[in-house]
């Protein structure tokens, strides 16, 4: 448990249940955890205030929406001090959905989602190459996502 934020077992149970089903009502979650819906509401508000809960997201099937290409881009920077400025430029690209500052071969690792290979080519050759500070990139194309899940906060 995280003593700095004073999370107790109920907080962790709320987080775990909400990560599994964010649509559950506070009343129904309260029944599962043997507390009132009001208690759940107060706890969620506290978790939001503390920055632990950062809203909810709609989980969609991107392929059904026409996005067929997921690629991972290893980015080599000319200098590691350029990370912040490059990250700001990458944030402007709608196709970049995740960015990590990494150790190892790459300075940064980005996930990109595109409708097709032609769009990916445009991102790689026309958008990424124009960003000052990027020395070179390596692209890995995902053939299939086997699974995606949240971490379990309770055993």
TrEMBL record:
One of its GO terms (biological process) is response to amino acid. GO terms for molecular function: sequence-specific DNA binding. Residues 7-68 form the HTH asnC-type domain. Keywords: DNA-binding, Transcription, Transcription regulation. GO terms for cellular component: cytosol. InterPro entries: AsnC-type_HTH_dom, Dimeric_a/b-barrel, Tscrpt_reg_AsnC-like, Tscrpt_reg_AsnC/Lrp_C, WH-like_DNA-bd_sf, WH_DNA-bd_sf. PANTHER family: LEUCINE-RESPONSIVE REGULATORY PROTEIN (PTHR30154), TRANSCRIPTIONAL REGULATOR AZLB (PTHR30154:SF34). This is Transcriptional regulator.
């Amino acid at each position: 448990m995280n003593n700095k934020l004073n999370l107790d077992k109920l907080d962790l149970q709320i987080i775990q249940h909400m990560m599994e089903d964010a649509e559950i009502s506070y009343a129904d979650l309260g029944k599962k955890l043997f507390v009132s819906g009001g208690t759940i509401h107060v706890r969620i508000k506290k978790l939001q205030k503390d920055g632990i809960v950062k809203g909810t997201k709609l989980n969609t099937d991107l392929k059904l929406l026409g996005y067929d290409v997921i690629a991972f881009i290893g980015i080599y920077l000319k200098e590691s001090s350029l990370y912040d400025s490059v990250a700001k430029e990458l944030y402007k690209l709608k196709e970049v959905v995740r960015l990590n500052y990494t150790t190892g071969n790459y300075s940064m690792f980005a996930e990109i989602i595109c409708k097709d290979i032609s769009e990916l080519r445009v991102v790689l050759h026309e958008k990424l190459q124009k960003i000052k500070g990027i020395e070179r990139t390596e692209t890995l194309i995902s053939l299939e996502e086997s699974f995606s899940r949240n971490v379990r906060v309770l055993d």
